[in-house]
Write a structure and sequence with these properties.
This protein has helices at 22-26, 46-65, 72-83, 90-100, 103-108, 111-114, 122-141, 152-163, 200-209, 230-243, and strands at 36-37, 40-41, 170-176, 182-190, 214-220, 249-257, 260-263. It has 270 residues and is α+β, with helices and mostly antiparallel strands. The chain has two domains: 44-137; 147-263, 3-Layer(aba) Sandwich (Cytidine Deaminase, domain 2), CATH 3.40.140.10. The strands form two sheets. The chain has a five-stranded mixed beta sheet, with helices on both faces. Strands 1-2 form a two-stranded antiparallel sheet. The chain starts with 21 loop residues before the first helix and ends in a 7-residue tail after the last strand. 23% of the residues are buried.
């Protein structure tokens, strides 16, 4: 039996493990199987080692070569790394692209449909829509204060991003001042998959309230085909006739589809 004295009690309790906090959500996690044992790192399990190494390689490619070096699903992976930090996100990204067809289709999809994809919950679906909203705001900021008619491609890009993937029809109006600069952008009505009620008097009344001297009408076709219907043409002509005596010009009526757009003015229908 040893005669050595017991170590003094210094009143310090052994350290206890702290629960996870929000910082751990965005941090890259070290697999439990890779913890140290007698100073030697244990080998991580094959699946974890694969996707952690894959993440590093994707980041390196993006950092050194930009987005042109990555496929659409790989760009989506880079985002999902932060939204779903503890899983292999490659199959999730591919499943999203397969379901919605394109990267734009993913971000344009309603949250309810996003959640139908395996491992996409409400939080991740909302975060994907947040990215989409930021992109829309950026495109809209490119129009604010500028002469819209000289930035027509920006108008189309904005309208396409905002409306092309909506599951129901929307009727939107861009209100312009006497310099043809954007002063307002409003959704005037939402309808069904193939119809939105439009009231010409309400369109003109709102233009007068905003002191707009010109407007651009925009609506989407959820079917994807932007070809104007007879009803689209008749409604547009009624608005033109109602607005003209009050000094309000209808520059165009743009119909947005998933794969393109149609301009009634370009088609010489107004």
């Amino acid at each position: 039996m040893s005669n050595r004295p017991a170590p003094p009690d210094d009143g310090v309790m052994p350290a206890m493990d702290e629960g996870p906090d929000e910082r751990g959500f965005f941090a890259e996690q070290t697999p439990k199987s890779a913890t140290l044992k007698r100073g030697v790192p244990a080998k991580a399990d094959d699946k974890q080692a694969h996707y952690h190494g894959h993440r590093d390689r994707l980041r390196t490619r993006y950092r050194e070569n930009g987005d042109g070096a990555l496929a659409d699903y790989e760009l989506l992976e880079l985002l999902l790394f932060r939204l779903i930090p503890r899983r292999d996100t490659k199959p999730i990204a591919k499943a999203l692209i397969d379901r919605f067809g394109t990267l734009a289709g993913v971000f344009g999809a309603p949250t309810s449909l996003l959640q139908e994809v395996d491992r996409i919950g409400e939080t991740v679906a909302l975060d994907l829509k947040l990215v989409s909203t930021v992109a829309h705001r950026m495109l809209k900021s490119e129009l604010r204060g500028k002469q819209v008619l000289s930035s027509w491609s920006s108008v189309i890009d904005y309208c396409h991003a905002a409306m092309a993937y909506e599951s129901r029809e929307q009727f939107r109006i861009l209100f312009l001042d006497k310099r043809n600069a954007l002063i307002g952008d409003e959704i005037q009505g939402r309808g069904t998959v193939d119809h939105t009620p439009v009231y010409p008097r309400e369109v003109v009344r709102r233009a007068l309230e905003l002191s707009a001297t010109a407007i651009i009408l925009v609506h989407n076709h959820p079917s994807g085909d932007p070809t104007p219907s007879r009803a689209d043409i008749d409604m547009t002509r009624t608005i033109v006739e109602t607005a003209k005596p009050l000094g309000i010009t209808v520059h165009d009526h743009i119909i947005i589809g998933k794969d393109g757009h149609a301009s009634l003015k370009g088609l010489r229908l107004i």
